[in-house]
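Please complete every field before forwarding. Incomplete forms are returned to the sender.

SECTION A: IDENTIFIERS
Entry label: holo-266
Bound molecule: adenosine-5'-triphosphate
Molecule representation: SMILES string

SECTION B: INPUTS
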Amino acid sequence: MHTREDVRPTTAVRLQAVRKIYGKGDNEVAALKELSMSFGTGTFTAVMGPSGSGKSTFLHCAAGLDQPTSGSVTVGDVDLAGLDEVQLTKLRRDRIGFIFQSFNLLPALTVMQNIVLPLKLAGKRPNKNQILMVVNRVGLAERINHLPGQLSGGQQQRVAIARALVTRPDVIFADEPTGALDTRTAAAVLALLRESVSSIGQTLVMVTHDPVAASYADRVVFLADGRFVGELHRPTAEAVAARMTRLGAWDDETHEPSATVAGGLH
Ligand SMILES: Nc1ncnc2c1ncn2[C@@H]1O[C@H](COP(=O)(O)OP(=O)(O)OP(=O)(O)O)[C@@H](O)[C@H]1O
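SECTION C: PREDICTED COMPLEX
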């Protein structure tokens, strides 16, 4: 018998010639321009680019939260263009995990209830051993009966990571997952994300402004003005920062390179 891993395609997510136009006529903005990109199963990719380069639009289109104007997005072996809203919702629930800067936990539910929520919503009976494995992996075994409000920011983000891992999705999209955390807590969360890729083969795509966060990835892809403009494999924070500087990412000083870059963290 095949396990699900045996039959997983080697490409978890593929975008082909994706265009996304917002607005009409004089107000038209081309946020993505013929963007083509693939994300291999079991890889960790960081997506970077200057403000307005299309990172959020990319994330929304790749995760089936928004539809491209043209081009195609495939998750696993499913072309999203062929799905109606109900099917898209089901695909997001069953095959995609999300981690946000703001954690997005339900405050009235315990840690354990938050973690098993995606399984409950999918009508699946939680497998106790699998849940406990995930809870242990994120280091929350002592906290399962706490409410999110009783946890630190780093602990809350670890709950969000466990919640994303528990359905064993084809891909997890993370949007600035360490944006609200201090440097040391961010490092712990990034190490955990890295470990979920290295040890269980999770596929992870993370949008970030932080070169140090990006240095935990296998690959960094750079967007500028809605286009793919380059990539770095086995990135260092210094190389990422240098590339971002060349892209003019910090000209407006809204996103300073992290102070930790100089230390060569990773
Ligand atoms: N709903 C929308 N309506 C009109 N234009 C939009 C909309 N969303 C995004 N845009 C425009 O599309 C372009 C890409 O925006 P997007 O938010 O994807 O960039 P980003 O790289 O995520 O930016 P940031 O790093 O500042 O979050 C920008 O020019 C933006 O103004």
